[in-house]
Amino acid sequence: MITILLLSLGCLLVILSIVFIYLYNKNSKGKKNETEVELNKVKKEIEKLTKVIEEHKLLQTDVFSSSENYASFESMIGHNLPLIEITDLELSDEKNIDSSELTANVATYVHQLRFYVFNVGKSSLKDVIISIKDIYNDPKDIKKRSRTIGHHDEESIDFNEYGIGTFENFDINILNLKSRRLVYSSTLPNSFGVAEYSFSVVVEWKGGFYQMDVRIEEFDGKLKYFYQYFDVNGNPINFELLESNIKK
Fold first, then answer.
1. Residue 111's CB: how many other CB atoms inside 10 A?
2. Hey, how many other C-beta atoms are within 10 angstroms of the C-beta on 72?
3. What residue ranges are annotated as transmembrane (predicted)?
4. Do 134 and 50 share a structural domain?
5. Is the domain of 146 the same as that of 38?
6. Measuring CA to CA, which residue among 36, 81, 99, 248 is closest to residue 179?
7. Do 62 and 85 belong to one domain?
8. Rounded to an integer, what distance in angstroms lies between the CA atom of residue 72 and that of residue 94?
9. What pLDDT was estimated at residue 8?
10. Lowest mean per-residue pLDDT among 59-68, 221-230, 232-241
């Protein structure tokens, strides 16, 4: 009887042990699964946060880069500005050509460009240097005052990289307020009314520096001007905005 009781008790203990082991393993597995789920959630949140941080850094970099490019432009706002104005004078020549007893009038156009500089601002300007590259005229025929232009530091522009043509420099010691001065004139090659021309102008003064690319289209003997402006680093300048701020 005692033996049977002991055997029954032993069996019960074994069964209980098996049940406990099963329940323990089940709970452990459940906890493990829950832990994996939580880890996956945390991982996804970390990925989202990392993405947000990277986007924020990229945005900050873009803002800083834009601000840096705008710095040289903004530094001139509120100061005087030597502005370049280009006008043209048309000298037309009409030739009569007889062919097969017919007379045809062929118009030959000759344009003379005049480069003016005038002071847009609130006071006089000192040490204004205008440099113009003219590939249509012999440099020997250009009256000039020799002086090296450009900032004399690491930001200097190497104008030898511009290719054909040389920059002729014109030094103006003092440019009075609201004054307008003729700097240079250029006679363009004869044309039959359709042509294209280009000039490069560099303007430097005590308060700033800018480059000016001029493209001229001729159609039916009329000239149309296109301008592009750049700062000392070659970044485009919104020149109209710059001028409007200075005129205020």
1. 22
2. 17
3. 6-24
4. no
5. no
6. 81
7. no
8. 49
9. 61
10. 59-68
Report the length, in residues, of the chain. 248
Among 22-31, 98-107, 232-241, the minimum mean pLDDT is found in 98-107
Same domain, 153 and 231: yes
Query: Within a 10 A sphere around the Cβ of 199, how many other Cβ atoms?
Result: 22
Same domain, 66 and 119: no
Q: Do both 4 and 31 map to the same domain?
A: yes
Global model pTM greater than 0.85: no
Residues 61, 112 within the same domain:
no
Cα–Cα distance for residue pair 19/146, rounded to 1 Å: 104
- What's the Rg (C-alpha) of the chain? 40
Range of the domain at 26: 1-74
Report CA dihedral (98, 99, 100, 102) to the nearest 10 degrees. Answer: -60
Q: Helix, strand or coil for residue 239?
A: helix
pLDDT at 48: 66
Which residue, among 63, 61, 72, has the nearest Cα to 233 in the 3D structure? 72
Q: Which residues pair with 129 in a beta bridge?
A: 171, 204
Tokens linked to 7: 């055997």
Both 156 and 203 in one domain: the answer is yes
Q: Which of 21, 55, 74 is the last residue of a domain?
A: 74
What does the alpha-carbon distance between residue 170 and residue 181 come to, in Å, rounded to a whole number?
A: 12
**3-class secondary-structure state, position 48:** helix
Q: What is the pLDDT of residues 135-188, one digit of tens each?
A: 988 655 554 433 333 333 334 344 444 445 678 899 999 888 888 899 999 999
Residue 231 has phi, psi (to 5 degrees) of: -85, -175
